[in-house]
Amino acid sequence: MGLLDNKVCLITGGAGSLGLASAKKFLAEGAKVAIVDLREADVERAKSELGGSNVEAIAADVSQADATKRYIDRTVSRFGKIDVLFSNAGNQGPITPTTEYPEDIFDAIMAVHVRGSFLCCKYGLPQMNDGGSVIITSSVVGAMGAPGSVAYVTAKHALVGMMRTLAKECARRNIRVNTLHPGPIDNEFQARIDAGIGKLAGGVDGRKLLDSAIPLGRHGTPEEIAGSALYLASGLSGFVTGTMVMADGGLRG
Length: 253
Fold this sequence. Notes:
Rossmann fold, 7-stranded parallel beta sheet, 17% strand
């Protein structure tokens, strides 16, 4: 038996490295998985890579209410009510001082991370089975500060407040709500951040700079972070709610 046998799991940001790695782990544990991402080409590529009959791929802008309702309804229509709601979609902006940070990019990051997670939960929770799990991807910077990333850091902190509120509200239905806090991950998303950090720090190698600050001495892999997502999705975390789960190689500590 798998840890997620016949469980219906919805993952936003499902075509990205963490979303795709999580989808693979969930499927391997017996789940039925709907992946949501912004571009049709990306979700179709991810669906092809995942393979099998237990995958649904949906293109949607998670910051829009109508699009959110559609991806929730399509998931339920295909597989039934949701057991795992994984709000993982994200975007990023430049690494630049707050006084120079573009206002439109600040708004765009808040729209995807904060409004996107709010809408996912607002419309997803009524379509969830009792006893399910909500996972919201925050970040190690959702538990600390980081220069040059005012929008991203602010958004990731906001998700912790959202999670704590939802954990209280959902406890009566035995739905657990937690945030997942990855540290730097070895992927293209992080590579752009590393480059910006290096530039802000005076032209140094941003990846090496971060690795020197991580006690484990390296970036994590998408598969390692997906393992933490699997823990939160499954009954292994049956008494865990309202919690920030750090998967950061010890960076915050």
